[in-house]
Write a structure and sequence with these properties.
With 376 residues, this protein is an alpha/beta fold. It folds into two domains: 19-244, Type I PLP-dependent aspartate aminotransferase-like (Major domain) (Aspartate Aminotransferase, domain 2, 3-Layer(aba) Sandwich); 247-374, Alpha-Beta Complex (Aspartate Aminotransferase, domain 1), CATH 3.90.1150.10. Helix content is 37%, strand content 16%. It contains 13 helices and 16 strands. The protein has helices spanning 19-32, 40-53, 64-74, 89-96, 116-122, 142-151, 203-213, 234-244, 247-266, 302-311, 330-333, 342-348, 362-374, and strands at residues 9-10, 57-61, 80-84, 101-105, 127-133, 155-159, 167-168, 171-172, 180-183, 196-200, 217-219, 222-223, 271-273, 290-294, 314-315, 351-354. The strands form five sheets. A seven-stranded mixed β-sheet has the order 2-10-9-6-5-3-4, with helices on both faces. Helix 1 runs antiparallel to helix 8 (234-244) and helix 9 (247-266) packs parallel to helix 13. The structure holds ligand T4K.
Length: 376
């Protein structure tokens, strides 16, 4: 039988907005001969993001990872920080890279995000913060986590890399905790090639973040703090500004694809589509990850299904298998941590993420599932 798709279908094929608009911004950039270091496009991008996310400050960065590192450093986090293991490894690396110990905590099987009661159990005298992750764009129990943070006088921030534009009980993600960090990597729903942003309502924190992202410079010849280079370039801001005009279109495409996946998956016993948000947050949800659970009554194991799909050029992913705690250096540093993460380990053995975004259409989804149906 011939391979189903000649061109591979990837999870993470970029969405690309109005190319003419992008090139106009790039022309302006060349005309000004201002390529990076807080140019006009970066300033405009930050303003638009601030309005969109409904926060007082947005600082765009060269990547989501660097944004996380700078945010946690500016917050003064040290010692131990509690986070989930069901996340991209960058969340843990951003801490470990600065000598902070990531303490992996189990998820709530309902939210797939940090379970506040479990977080509380892991607080030690060395704990300075909680780093929640709105995994797959699903919102954390932000109020439960804030209550734990307040009770123990520690700080809370969120990795919102998957949640751009999403709401939680109708409130835009971006303004919870001390700050929230988004990624604008090429594979994200909304991208600036590479990039990220720290969103916050904390005036003092944003000052530190701005210093730290620019080597600590407060003026031409004055350095007030240790810092690094976390700046976003003008060409990335141009991509961000151009793509920003298409955010509603990208969301509509993802929601349409997601609904089609739901219809097709419903007809297949043993496969279940993971809810991407609560009902009241559906209209805002970016639906950038189509997460499917392969249950015990499905005739193939998750990995067998993945191999068959890969053989057809349908490049589904097991994000975030095997879990950060089973990747280095965490695996060696904390070899037994998996035993306290039963829900995390369980879900990691069952999930497969399917491609979506602009490059995926309803006929493509139908063809994927015509193939899947042949295997049951
Ligand atoms: N926190 C969380 C929760 C995150 O998910 C991430 C990033 C971060 C923090 C860190 O943010 P950044 O520092 O990245 O801004 C990809 C992305 O590189 C990563 O940004 C993302 N999460 C993660 C979930 O996915 P990989 O290692 O899986 O990428 P890769 O190279 O396998 O690409 C994924 C697929 O996308 C490939 O099958 C091909 C396709 N692709 C990729 C690129 C770059 C394209 O079709 N075109 C492209 O230009 O991590």
């Amino acid at each position: 039988m011939s391979i189903e798709f000649k061109t591979p279908l990837h999870v993470g094929t970029p969405n690309i907005g109005d190319r003419t608009l992008f090139l106009e911004y790039v022309d302006q950039m060349f005309d000004r001969r201002w390529l990076t270091n807080h140019g006009e496009l970066v300033a405009e991008f930050e303003n638009q993001l601030k309005d969109y996310l409904g926060v007082r400050h947005c600082v765009v960065m060269c990547s989501g990872t660097i944004a996380l590192e700078i945010a946690t450093r500016a917050m003064g986090l040290t010692g131990e920080v509690i986070l989930p293991a069901l996340t991209f490894v960058a969340t843990a690396h951003a801490l470990q890279w600065q000598g902070i110990t990531p303490v992996f905590c189990d998820i709530d099987p309902e939210t797939l995000c940090l379970n506040p009661a479990e977080v509380e159990q892991l607080i030690s005298p060395r704990t300075t913060g909680i780093l929640g992750v709105h995994v797959y764009g699903r919102g954390c129990d932000v109020h439960g986590l804030q209550a734990v943070a307040d009770a123990h006088q520690i700080q809370l921030l969120f990795d919102a890399a998957h949640a751009f534009g999403n709401t939680l009980n109708g409130k835009k993600i971006g303004g919870f905790g001390e700050c929230e960090v988004f990624s604008f990597h090429a594979t994200k729903f909304f991208n600036s090639f590479e990039g990220g942003v720290v969103a916050t309502n904390n005036d003092a924190l944003v000052e530190k973040i701005r210093l730290m992202q620019n080597f600590g410079f407060s003026s031409w010849d004055r350095v007030d703090h240790i810092g690094t280079n976390g700046k976003m370039t003008e060409v990335c801001a141009a991509m961000g500004l151009a793509n920003f005009q298409s955010v509603d279109k990208f969301r509509a495409i993802n929601q349409r694809n997601r609904d089609r996946y739901a219809q097709r998956i419903e007809t297949i016993p043993g496969l279940r589509l993971v809810e991407h948000c609560a009902v009241e947050d559906r209209s805002a949800a970016n639906a950038q990850y189509v997460v499917v659970e392969v249950l015990e009554d499905y005739p193939l194991s998750r990995d067998e299904l993945m191999e068959r799909l890969h053989a057809e050029n349908i490049l589904v992913r097991r994000y975030f298998w095997p879990g950060c705690h089973r990747m280095e250096p965490y695996k060696t540093l904390h070899p037994h941590v998996g035993s306290r993460l039963p829900f995390t380990e369980d879900i990691l053995e069952r999930i497969l993420l399917f491609p979506t975004g602009e490059a995926i259409s309803m006929p493509i989804i139908d063809r994927i599932f015509a193939r899947v149906k042949q295997w049951i």
